[in-house]
Write a structure and sequence with these properties.
By secondary structure, the chain is an alpha+beta fold. The protein has helices spanning 21-38, 65-71, 83-88, 98-105, 107-116, 132-135, 138-152, 176-187, 226-242, 277-284, 289-301; strands spanning 8-15, 43-50, 56-58, 61-62, 74-77, 93-94, 124-127, 157-161, 171-173, 193-197, 202-212, 214-221, 249-255, 261-267. The protein has 3 domains: 3-94, Rossmann fold; 100-120 and 200-301, ATP-grasp fold, B domain (D-amino Acid Aminotransferase, Chain A, domain 1); 124-197, 2-Layer Sandwich (Dna Ligase, domain 1), CATH 3.30.1490. The strands form 3 sheets. The protein has a 6-stranded mixed sheet with strand order 4-3-2-1-5-6, with helices on both faces. Strand 13 (249-255) and strand 14 form a beta hairpin. Helix 7 packs across helix 8 (176-187). The protein is globular, with a radius of gyration of 21 Å. InterPro entries: ATP_grasp_subdomain_1 (IPR013815). This is D-alanine-D-alanine ligase. GO terms for molecular function: ATP binding.
Length: 302
C-alpha cells in the first residue's frame, strides 16, 4: 500500500503579490521544514508557489485554483490577502481573516477596542517612506521627523520599519540625536517608519487557540503574579474573539511599574520554530507544538 495515499495532503501557499512576498516565502518554507521534521508520517506537503501576479504554481508549472481542490485536503495560506479567493473556490484553508488582518494593521481601530476594555497601546507616529524628490535632503528630513516625534511623546523610542520586514533593524533611541539617526537609517531602506513609545515593565505574551482542550485555550509566557496572569489571559481571549482571529493569536503585553497594561503587538500566524515564544510556552505546559499544528489542521478540515 502506498503510504502517501493515506496521508492528509496539505497545500502550503506562499509568495504572492504585494509587500508580503518575501515574508510569505519564508513563512511557507518554515512550515514545510516543520512538517518534514515533526509530522511527515501524517501529512503530505503540496508546495504551492504564488508568483507576483498571484498565479499559483506546483512543481514549477502554473495551475488553476479549481484543480488545487483535487490535489489537497486543506491549504495553509501564508499570503495576507488570498483567503477570500480560497473561499470563492470552496477550498478548506487556514488563513487570517480579512477583518483580523485589517485590525492587526490598523492601530487606530485596535486602540479604540483596547481602550474600551481598559488596555492602553503605546503612543506612536507613522512616518511615510522617504522620497528624495518630495522630501529633499535626507538629513533635514530625518531631523524634521524626529522633531515631530519629540513633540508628540518623549523618550525612550522604539524605531523600526512599518510592517514585518526582517531586513531592517530595530532601534532603541534614548536621545534626540539617536532618534534622528534611527529615522535616517530606516529611511534609507525605502520603507515607512513606525516610531513607538517604548514601555518599560514586565513583558508577557499570551497565545490563544480556540477549541484546544477548552473553548479558548491559552498559553502565557512571563514572570507575573497570578492576578496579572488572569488579567492578561482575559484581555487576550477578548481580543481573539473581537478581531475574529480564527485559528490562533499571539498578544504581547507590557505591564508598567504603575500596573497599567499595554498591548504592544499582535500576531496572527503561529511560529513553530524551536526557539519561538510559542514553542517555549508549549513546553512550559507540557504540550507539543506539533499537537497545536494538528489541532489547527483538524479544525480546518471540519
Amino acid at each position: 500500500m502506498d503510504l502517501n495515499n493515506t496521508k492528509i495532503k496539505i497545500g502550503i501557499i506562499r509568495g504572492g503579490e504585494g509587500d508580503n512576498y518575501e515574508n510569505s516565502l519564508r513563512e511557507g518554507s518554515d512550515l514545510i521544514s516543520f512538517i518534514n521534521s515533526n509530522l511527515s508520517d501524517k501529512y503530505k506537503i503540496i508546495d504551492i508557489f504564488l508568483d507576483k501576479e498571484n498565479i499559483p504554481h506546483i512543481n514549477g508549472l502554473p495551475i488553476s485554483l479549481d484543480k488545487i481542490t483535487h490535489k489537497t485536503d486543506v491549504v495553509w495560506n501564508t499570503h495576507n490577502n488570498f483567503s477570500h479567493i480560497l473561499d470563492n473556490f470552496s477550498i478548506k484553508h487556514i488563513s487570517s481573516s480579512t477583518f483580523s488582518n485589517v485590525m492587526s494593521h490598523n492601530r487606530s481601530i485596535l486602540e479604540e477596542h483596547m481602550k474600551s476594555v481598559g488596555v492602553k497601546m503605546p503612543r506612536h507616529l507613522v512616518i511615510p517612506a522617504y522620497q528624495r524628490d518630495f522630501d529633499g535632503d535626507m538629513d533635514k528630513f530625518s531631523f524634521k521627523k524626529a522633531k515631530e516625534v519629540f513633540e508628540k511623546f518623549g523618550s525612550p523610542w522604539l524605531v523600526h520599519a512599518f510592517g514585518k520586514d526582517m531586513n531592517t533593524g530595530i532601534h532603541i533611541a534614548k536621545t534626540f540625536e539617536q532618534l534622528v539617526y534611527a529615522i535616517s537609517d530606516i529611511a534609507q531602506s525605502g520603507k515607512s517608519i513606525l516610531v513607538e513609545e517604548l514601555i518599560i515593565g514586565k513583558v508577557a505574551s499570551v497565545h490563544t487557540v480556540p477549541n484546544f482542550r477548552e473553548a479558548m485555550y491559552s498559553f502565557l509566557k512571563g514572570n507575573l503574579t497570578l492576578l496579572e496572569k488572569e488579567r492578561l489571559i482575559n484581555y487576550a481571549k477578548d481580543l481573539h474573539t473581537h478581531i475574529n482571529a480564527n485559528h490562533y493569536l499571539k498578544s504581547s503585553f507590557v505591564i508598567n511599574k504603575r500596573g497599567a497594561v499595554y498591548l504592544v503587538n499582535v500576531e496572527l500566524k503561529p511560529n513553530f520554530k524551536e526557539y519561538s515564544d510559542l514553542h517555549q510556552s508549549c513546553e512550559d505546559r507540557g504540550v507539543k507544538t506539533s499537537s497545536i499544528f494538528e489541532h489547527i489542521i483538524d479544525q480546518a478540515l471540519k
